[in-house]
Amino acid sequence: MKNFYRLFIPFVLFLSISCSSPDINLSQDFDHGSLGDMKETSPGYFKGKTAHWLKRDGIGDQYYWFYFRADHVAGKTLSIELRDLIGVYRGNPHLVYTDHTQPVFSYDRENWERITDVSYDSATHTFIFSESFQQDTVWIAYAHPYPWSRLEQLTGKLQDQEYVTLENIAKTAEGREIRLVTITDPQADAENKKTVLIMALQHSGEDAGGFLVEGLIDYLLSEDPGAQQARGKFIFHVIPMMNPDGIVNGITRYNTAMEDLNNIWVNDERAQPEVTGVKSWVDRWYAEGNAIDLFIDVHNHSQFHTYHAFIFQDHSLDSLVTDMNNHWPIRIWHSEFEGSSCSWFFREGIPSGTIELSQSRIGDGPYLTIEDYLDYGAGTVKGIVEFFEN
Question: What does residue 383 show for φ and ψ, rounded to 5 degrees?
Fold first, then answer.
């Protein structure tokens, strides 16, 4: 009997160990994934930091984007403690985390929920969030991610659409194409059509802009009477993703050359293929006798600010913001920042502005969803049509 217990007890221990849940694993090796060094300091509790990306001129340090997968989390609580959440933006300290920052999680990368158990220590720049999960694998991100694969799905659906022309107008350092989507009614009189150029995702990590332009495209191709009117009176050129290399590699703000694309439009010495490609397309468009009547660049200002803004240099677009605000909440913000895409188009004599979206909420309202951003795209079209009609 003693020999039996000698054999039985180790066998029970073996079964207990072998049947226990495997350790939680964090990974970032997928489209748009990004995470810095992390260490599990106690079961389910990880400490570390986001990946920091240093601008090639040495005066920028961007850090806030994270997007990772967690495996073996079913029935467990996962806690993440992120430290050193301070960067550098245009030579000044850059702080974007707050006590109202709420990351998102998804079991299928389609449907996202907010993580509400959050805390931020502004003295130590430390952010902690926790969530309990029902399924074994979950994806977690700073905000709703818009990966390269989603753009590929979108452009695939646009093939052979009646009102759509697709072009590749530039190629990145890693060989990805910069897509241009043109939407108009080819049967409508072209002579009096207004031309609008809209661009998004110059900065990787500012993903809400991708959803806005996707919603804009979806609305323009719908049978809504307002969309039919827009197709008949406008040519919409849309660049949904200016920085695909930065997106795919999970970089915060920069491309793979560690350049801020929106800082180099008026500085040819720092040229990058994404920007020079768009400039070349504009030159060709002009050479064919065409004009551009409005340029909009879509960004977002992290989860720090709880409002949307439309930024431009003079007062020529004040009424456009008023018209857009009839359809979604956005405010006027005047700025004379030099070097950006808007400043370059402004120098070309084209009314130009930057949309800055919040990635958290508006005021004390509910936290924003992908559907909100898609709706903003439709509202942007409606505001533009009203602006040119008045």
Answer: -65, -40
Cβ 135 vs Cβ 107: under 8 Å: yes
Render pLDDT for 88-97 as a digit per residue (tens, 0 to 9): 998 899 999 9
Average pLDDT of 253-272? 92
Domain membership of residue 186 as a residue range? 148-389
Tell me which residue has tokens 């795919």. 248
What DSSP element (H or E) covers 208? helix 208-220
pLDDT digits (tens, 9 = 90+) for 40-70: 999 999 999 999 999 999 999 999 999 999 9
274/153 Cα distance (integer angstroms):
21
Q: CA geometry: angle at 377 spanning 371 and 379, to 5°?
A: 100
The token pair that represents 5 in the structure block: 């217990």
Confirm if 181 and 157 have CB atoms less than 8 A apart. no
Note whether residue 353 is domain-resident: yes
Judged by phi (left if over 0) then psi (alpha if -120 to 50, else beta), residue 103 lies in beta
Antiparallel, parallel or unpaired: β 294-300 and 194-200: parallel
Q: Decide which of 80, 108, 141 is a domain's last residue.
A: 141
Task: Identify the DSSP state of 22.
Answer: P
